[in-house]
């Protein structure tokens, strides 16, 4: 993977190793009421992450600006794959670049239950269907920002509580298949 960047200065780095990630984001407002089908055919974001290290042909302060990412095709020609703005990034730090949206991996989110348990406590359940139309298996990171004091009651897949208000799931979706993540939460506001 190659990348070019910056409007005011010229920087070129070749053969920068990156990790491609597919990320499906939720929103806090999903947890505050009854919604039913929230969004169908929601796009999955495509990101690349890199480490700004000398070993990766970088290792220098990267000024705030536009990063353009190119990839060599089968014939060795560079093909533009996307661009994003980055903030000032010191050496030895990670950079996440949003390249756009996957056109062959989609998600559909729906709320399957909502109950008021007490004046400040609710139970809610969701299903997220992820469909992979690629010719290869993919892993989609589902990031759910959950407000309030919450507890996961059940989940069809393992999750990690990465922050006090965030649950993350890594869902493997086989080629040309659909996988459904379902979970139930108790939330107190």
Keywords:
189 residues; mainly beta; 9-stranded mixed sheet; 65% strand
Please give a structural write-up:
There is one protein chain. This protein has 189 residues and is mainly beta. It has one domain. 0% of the residues lie in helices and 65% in strands. It is built from no helices and 13 strands. Strands 10-13-8-7-4-3-9-12-11 form a 9-stranded mixed β-sheet, with no helix packed on it. A 4-stranded antiparallel β-sheet has the order 2-1-5-6, with no helix packed on it. Strand 1 and strand 2 form a beta hairpin. It is globular and about 60 Å long. About 3% of the residues have low confidence.
- The portion of residues assigned to helices is under 10%
Quickly count the domains: 1
Number of DSSP E strands: 13
Task: Provide the low-confidence segments as ranges.
Answer: 4-8
β-strand percent reads over 45%
**First-to-last CA distance:** 45 Å
Main beta-sheet strand count, sense and barrel state = 9 strands, mixed
- Count the helices. How many? 0
Write a brief structural summary:
The chain has 189 residues and is mostly beta strands. Helix content is 0%, strand content 65%.
Outline the secondary-structure elements.
Layout: E1 2-5, E2 11-13, E3 19-25, E4 37-51, E5 65-72, E6 78-86, E7 94-118, E8 121-132, E9 138-145, E10 149-155, E11 160-163, E12 166-173, E13 177-188
Parallel strand pairs: 3-9
Antiparallel strand pairs: 1-2, 1-5, 3-4, 4-7, 5-6, 7-8, 8-13, 9-12, 10-13, 11-12
């Amino acid at each position: 993977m190659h990348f070019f960047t910056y409007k005011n200065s010229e920087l070129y780095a070749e053969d920068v190793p990156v990790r491609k990630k597919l990320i499906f984001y939720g929103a806090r407002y999903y947890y505050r009421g009854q919604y039913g089908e929230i969004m169908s055919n929601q796009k999955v974001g495509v990101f690349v992450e890199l480490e700004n290290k000398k070993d990766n042909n970088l290792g220098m302060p990267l000024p705030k600006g536009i990063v353009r990412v190119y990839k060599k095709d089968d014939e060795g020609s560079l093909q533009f794959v996307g661009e994003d703005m980055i903030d000032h990034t010191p050496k030895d730090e990670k950079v996440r670049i949003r390249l756009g949206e996957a056109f062959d991996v989609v998600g559909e989110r729906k709320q399957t239950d909502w109950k008021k348990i007490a004046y400040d406590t609710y139970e809610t359940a969701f299903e997220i269907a992820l469909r992979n139309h690629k010719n290869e298996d993919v892993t989609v990171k589902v990031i759910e920002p959950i407000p309030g004091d919450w507890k996961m009651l059940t989940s069809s897949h393992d999750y990690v509580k990465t922050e006090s208000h965030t649950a993350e799931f890594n869902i493997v979706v086989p080629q040309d298949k659909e996988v459904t993540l379902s979970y139930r939460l108790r939330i107190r506001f």
